[in-house]
Amino acid sequence: MGPEALEEALGRERKVKTVEVLNVLTGKGFKKVGKRSIDSLHKSEDLTDHYDEVIEYYKDVLRKEKEQVEEDKKKKLREVELWTRAIREEEKSAIEQHHKENPVDANTEAIKESMAKRRAAELREKQALESARGVFEAHMAEAMEGRRREWEQRRQDFKGEQMEALKGRILEHANGERRKARNDQIAKRRAEEWRIKEAKI
């Protein structure tokens, strides 16, 4: 494939990718890419001129979404920790008050056991939240890898189609040249035969 054909194919590929990203951004509720509206970008005569701008903006959107998810998880963990701490303080105050009012009580061990069970449940909940974070990160990594593989496959398919089309044009041109050369030979031969025939007369 010549440089011009390769550049043209790359331009079409960049245009397709730009349209895909703009559609994704529209689906997410975005109206603009930077200061330009998405509608005006769709109507742009040469959309490939905005490829880098659109791709960088989309990368920034994905980064912010990931950061927000991480922040939400941290906030949830902090809320759980604060809630756990408040419960423990409340239980501690209740036990101290109980001891003051009842210096000797057979229920003390039962209270301690209940507290231990509650703390164990809280610990399991916290561990579950931390585990969920790992699952989410793995899921995001897998999704991004899937998108990368899909895009790479589309790019390879597009290149394959362009190569097949170019091969067809080359073969067609070669066949035309062969036919032209064969016709020239036939014409020359007939002209020579006609010249010899004229000479004999």
Care to give the gist of this entry?
The chain has helices spanning 3-27, 38-42, 51-101, 108-200, and strands at 32-33, 36-37. With 201 residues, it is an all-alpha fold. The chain has a two-stranded antiparallel ribbon with strand order 1-2.
Fraction in beta strands: under 5%
Please outline the major beta sheet: 2 strands, antiparallel
In one word, what is the shape?
A: rod-shaped
Helix content: over 70%
Compute the number of strand runs.
2
The helix-and-strand class reads: mainly alpha
> Which strand order spans the largest sheet, edge to edge or round the barrel?
1-2
Q: From the alpha-carbon coordinates, what is the Rg to the nearest angstrom?
A: 38 Å
Output the number of helix runs.
Answer: 4
Q: N-to-C SSE series?
A: HEEHHH
The N- and C-terminal alpha carbons lie at a distance of: 56 Å
Oligomeric form of this entry?
single chain
Q: Extract low-pLDDT stretches.
A: none
Q: Average pLDDT value?
A: 77
Provide structural commentary.
Strand 1 (32-33) and strand 2 form a beta hairpin. The radius of gyration is 38 Å and the shape is rod-shaped. The chain has helices at residues 3-27, 38-42, 51-101, 108-200, and strands at residues 32-33, 36-37. The chain has a domain at 11-65. The chain is 87% helix and 2% strand. The longest helix has 93 residues, at 108-200. Helix 1 runs parallel beside helix 3 and helix 3 (51-101) packs antiparallel against helix 4. The protein is an all-alpha fold and 201 residues long. The mean pLDDT is 77. It contains 4 helices and 2 strands; from the N terminus they run H-E-E-H-H-H. Strands 1-2 form a two-stranded antiparallel ribbon.
